[in-house]
Amino acid sequence: MAAATGDVKRRSFFREWILTVDHKKIGIMYAVTAIVFFFIGGLAALFIRTQLAMPGNMIIPPDMFNQAFTMHGTIMIFLWIIPMLTGAFGNYLVPIMIGAHDMAFPKMNALSYWLFLLGGLVLMSSFVVGAIPEVGWTAYPPYSIQSQGAGLDLWVTSVHILGLSSILAAINFIVTTFNMRAPGMTMNRMPLFVWANLVTSFIQLFGTPALAGAVTTLLMDRHLKTTFYDVAAGGDPMLYQHLFWFYSHPAVYVMIVPAMGIVSEIIPVFARKPIFGYKAIAYSSIMIGLLGFLVWAHHMFVAGMQLSAGIPFMITSLIIAVPTAIKIFNWLASLWGGQINYTTPMLYVTFGFIGLFTVGGLSGIVLGNVPLDLHLHDTYFVVAHFHYVLFGGSMMAIIAGTYFWFPKVTGKMYKESTAKIIFWTYFIGTNLTFFPMHMIGLNGMPRRVFVYTPDLTFLNQISTAGAFLVGLASLAFVIQICVATMKGEKASANPWNANTLEWTNASSPPTEFNFEALPIVTEDPYQYGEKPGKSKGNIA
């Protein structure tokens, strides 16, 4: 029982971290690694915005500009948002939330992390060898087939390795969630973050092979002289787009559904109310997961397919807004009449996620309509849309979750006043960066261009200033987290008086095997209001 209580002998750093199979340490390694990649991707974004600060700038030559937005998109999606939400938050929280001592397959869990790191290093090696891909994160043929150098080959290899990591992680989460829940933890008593992570795992499991097929055939066309995408030889470049977006649009929900799960955990704690519509929020995640595989071709309305073929995808693209709206209205109902405490996590959730994500969702409805998308496709209106979704949504939720579970992970508290200043810097910077892009796009500026007409100078300068403000906030956020980890005041086991198992039945930070004894769950995790602070689980 010594190991079960965390009373273990001191291990070397190599055994403690490099050889660990502890899901919590693996989650922390995912987080630290992803943050490093986040700053690399963020620097690429600042290079882009610096070039666009003036209409005739030549600070960055055209080929380097192409490399910057290619690496920015690839890093932020594959090496930051997805691994941070599923790898870091999912690994650390899911086993504790369901009352398990670890993941179902601990060694496979460790392998998933090391594959993620390897995939990231392979992509970063393109900087070292001087062969940076410049075809955009979508790598559309025929341009990608004709691209010179090893940059695209490294990109494809990285995507393959990262895809394998995602598939192994998805299998692990699915088995863990279905088979390792504590006694009394029925499906309808699972925390909503666990629901979100489960749906995300199924999306990754079924969607990632399509991406693997797309990039494999791309590589074969480049080096084995196959003709999958060679029109002259009977190939079809649109096949690549179908395969790519069959994964990559569901991947949007890989980046947003876990973020929604984080929001669903934070709101009832700081509103001191039970979550409104638990089943509606949980089952709407399933609806999003299913519908996510039926909307991919809305990225291809201008790719040459028949107009009539786009109508079904327009309909599904509009329908998928319904389960998202269900979540938002249930969150608002949970806030209504609550005793709201605007802590830092609550600011990021309410003003940050709900406010900014809603803007991105509304512009998404616009782009989901074929007639409008024909005019707005590949303009900066699209850039504004998906950044409000992924930065205003996913990024805000990631930071909210970091502050919320920071006492649990570190056993320390951060300084609330500083954290709130950082939030408002983020909030203002995000809107300054991305809101002007709506007008820039409506005025016809295409994305992926490094010069533009002088009449759009002022709007682009506002956007560039906002980007540097976001960069400042990001740096301040990481510095605060590091300082609080080393020097913060000691946190209690449950500083938020929350009801889920990681707060009620585990120390801060948790012991090696999470619990001193197996939890027995007797009620749902969101019993606030009439039963403030009541523990969700009894100790067997």
From TrEMBL:
It catalyses: 4 Fe(II)-[cytochrome c] + O2 + 8 H(+)(in) = 4 Fe(III)-[cytochrome c] + 2 H2O + 4 H(+)(out). This is Cytochrome c oxidase subunit 1. Its EC number is 7.1.1.9. The chain crosses the membrane at residues 28-48, 68-90, 111-132, 152-180, 192-220, 251-271, 280-299, 311-333, 345-366, 386-406, 418-442, 462-483. It is a multi-pass membrane protein. The keyword Translocase applies. Pathway: Energy metabolism; oxidative phosphorylation. Belongs to the heme-copper respiratory oxidase family. Keywords: Cell membrane, Copper, Electron transport, Heme, Iron, Membrane, Metal-binding, Respiratory chain, Translocase, Transmembrane, Transmembrane helix, Transport. The gene is ctaD.
